[in-house]
Amino acid sequence: MVASALWGWLQQWKQSNWQRRSKPIWAAPLGQDIAAWLEKLAVKVCHVEAHVPKNWATEEHQNNQQMDQAAKIEVSQVDLDWQRKGELFIARCAHDTSGHQERDATYRWACDQGVDLTMDAIAQVIYECEMRAAIKQAKWLKPVWYGGRWLKYKYGEAWQIDYITLPQTCQGKCHVLTMVEATTGWLETYPVPHATSWNTILGLEKQVLWQHGTPERTESDNGTHF
């Protein structure tokens, strides 16, 4: 299914030396392997005589027997929606790998990696994503410590960070760094495979510093990953 979906892009990628905008496309080695496999598929074309006596051991008779045998092989029903399913599979991987971002951010990430996806496919996988639904719901919640000592901070200056554990994704990520803005309760998340200090730094850099500025204060449970 995936190979069939990629087939429409393989020629274009191959001609551009597996690059897009001078950047290597996402999962280029996988695409090259699929392209090489598809190009090596054997296609046999032969002449067949429909009415050849069985006692004629001719090439046409042998071809006729092969075609009869092939026609008797039971095949599964052809999935006419293979292209759409393949696109959704790739969109789901892109959404997961890019950190469960929103539609436009996932689309930009896919374009940067050389993956052509439609907004419709991305919107569908985001709608079906359980983790994204949980994140969206949590963003509307105010923190239990809302008010009090946090009132002296402006938006983006104070954050509380912690790790939560969720079911493992196809990318092996089962921990999520949660970063809550103290004055509004706005939640930023960063899925990682392991709760480490290095991943904490990466999450703060990408989700807080780049989007909200440098915080004046961060609070945590002082675990080893903080």
Automatic annotation (TrEMBL):
<feature type="domain" description="Integrase catalytic">
    <location>
        <begin position="139"/>
        <end position="226"/>
    </location>
</feature>
<dbReference type="InterPro" id="IPR012337">
    <property type="entry name" value="RNaseH-like_sf"/>
</dbReference>
<dbReference type="InterPro" id="IPR036397">
    <property type="entry name" value="RNaseH_sf"/>
</dbReference>
<dbReference type="InterPro" id="IPR001584">
    <property type="entry name" value="Integrase_cat-core"/>
</dbReference>
<dbReference type="Pfam" id="PF00665">
    <property type="entry name" value="rve"/>
</dbReference>
<protein>
    <recommendedName>
        <fullName>Integrase catalytic domain-containing protein</fullName>
    </recommendedName>
</protein>
